[in-house]
Amino acid sequence: MENCEYCQGRTKQRSEEEYKSLVNRLSRIEGQIRGIRGMVEKNAYCIDILTQASAASAALNAFSRELLSAHIRTCVARDIREGKNETIEELVNTLQKMMR
């Protein structure tokens, strides 16, 4: 998991495993959203739509947690080792935004 050398500026080269995992999660979420749209178009019962929307929201949160975990293990850890403490402030700001 040592991809730290690939965390450069505002881009990151991900491992094939990380890339596939993230894209697969996003594809499932995309399918969930399309399904919700279809439910609205077919005048599905509100509670059924809300249940699916809640599941899609939980899936997006799981995606964010996975991405954040990888970021901390690679980019953040590397920057801390290199004494780049501004990365900690960036992480704190990101966590505050995610917790709104």
Features:
100 residues, mainly alpha, Methane Monooxygenase Hydroxylase, Chain G, domain 1, 3 helices, 2 strands, 75% helix
Describe this structure in words.
This protein is mostly helical and 100 residues long. The chain has one domain: Up-down Bundle (Methane Monooxygenase Hydroxylase, Chain G, domain 1), CATH 1.20.58.1000. 75% of the residues lie in helices and 4% in strands. It has three helices and two strands, in the order ββααα. The chain has a two-stranded antiparallel sheet with strand order 1-2. The chain is elongated, with a radius of gyration of 17 Å. It starts with 6 loop residues before the first strand and ends with a helix. The relative contact order is 0.13. The model has no long low-confidence stretch (mean pLDDT 91).
Q: Could you list the spans in which at least 5 consecutive residues all have pLDDT below 50?
A: none
CATH architecture: Up-down Bundle
Our measurement of the CA-to-CA distance between the termini, rounded to an integer number of angstroms, reads 30 Å
How would you describe the shape? Answer: elongated
CATH topology: Methane Monooxygenase Hydroxylase, Chain G, domain 1
Helix content: over 70%
Summarize the structure.
This protein has three helices and two strands; from the N terminus they run E-E-H-H-H.
List the helices and strands and how they pair.
Layout: E1 7-8, E2 11-12, H1 16-41, H2 46-81, H3 86-98
